[in-house]
What we know:
Blueprint: H1 2-5, H2 18-50, H3 63-97, H4 104-117, H5 133-145, H6 147-161, H7 170-193, H8 195-201, H9 205-235, H10 241-267, H11 282-311
Amino acid sequence: VTILNMRAPGMNMMKLPLFVWTWLITAFLLILVMPILAGVVTMMLMDIHFGTSFFNAAGGGDPVLFQHIFWFFGHPEVYIMILPAFGIVSEIIPTFARKKLFGYSSMVYATSSIAFLSFIVWAHHMFTVGMPLAGELFFMFATMLIAVPTGVKVFNWVATMFRGSMTFETPMLFALAFVVLFSIGGFSGLMLAIAPADFQYHDTYFVVAHFHYVLVPGSIFSIMAATYYWLPKWTGNYYNEKMGKIHFWLSFIGINITFFPMHFVGLAGMPRRVPDYALQFADFNAISTVGAFMFGFSQLLFIYNVVCCIRKKNQASKQVWEGAHGLEWTLPSPAPYHSFTKPPKVD
């Protein structure tokens, strides 16, 4: 309602910041899928506590039905986590490339397409349950189709940077890492989309590697990028840029050491969701453990930087970043409680 009814005068839908567009689409996804989760949890609790047989085969139920309903919620949920990240990156890259976002309208349509397609691909999580061939073919091709609007977004981000006057402050470093690592996760996702290949990859550490290459650089890196990007606006103080860059490199190296070896142990047959593993996987798992501790401890630096930014007075300017555009960058830093006494006119 805020986005649809309370925009500034002159700001039509195709002038909205892309971050706002992604949140609007995410809000609709949340409205559509949360009742499905509530329904499947209620059915499961009824089976456990009240003797119903929705998913209990002994009483005529179907355990695979649970998987269908859960993943019908679960796959749009992945995009609920990643679409706001797309919006964040679409704000940061133009700022530090000092150019307008390339292909704004195609970004809006690509985001909408991803949201729609997320509802018709859920069974790619279930290729091994014994689906009919027609079902496998449909979900395989529908899943591959998601690569098209996602490819449009990656192309537009790269085109925005092309011949831009780029500088590499901490938010831009996290945004660039997002684009590179998310693309790597996307390629392994295309491998998993191929049904006969997925019979091999299913429930191995290859899936864990894919998922974390999409969501750790996706959601977590974008949250970090957004924090560094808007922190001077929130607090009125600049953060320590050198400390921010050290945090970025430790995080970037840490997650690659953690998750890249999982591709190899997954392809070699190491199953996920088991408490122990065969001896031949020990070396790669040891490497992953080192990377995980490195990534985890580097976040202490992030927290320290945020706390120092709040406490130490290093006054931020109104615009903060040279290439920043948008209404929030016209306000003092930190933004006052009553930002605009009159709604600003957008040209």
